[in-house]
Amino acid sequence: MVANCQTFYYVLRGETCTSIAAKLRISAQQIIAWNPNARLDCTLLFADYFACVGLA
């Protein structure tokens, strides 16, 4: 997760970068950029963890 993250989202089971992005009206590419540990294909974005979805 990037150091200047300001907004967090609790990932639910079954959600993907694409579904979260659509729900929050941001791009999947932004989620991937702000959560580099999730990998480029978003396979390491896990349920029951927080993801960065907005910067300061």
Automatic annotation (TrEMBL):
Keywords: Chitin-binding, Virulence. GO terms for molecular function: chitin binding. The lineage of its organism: Eukaryota, Fungi, Dikarya, Ascomycota, Pezizomycotina. It comes from Lasiosphaeris hirsuta. This is LysM domain-containing protein. The keyword Cell inner membrane does not apply. Residues 7-53 form the LysM domain. The keyword tRNA-binding does not apply. Belongs to the secreted LysM effector family. It holds the Pfam family LysM.
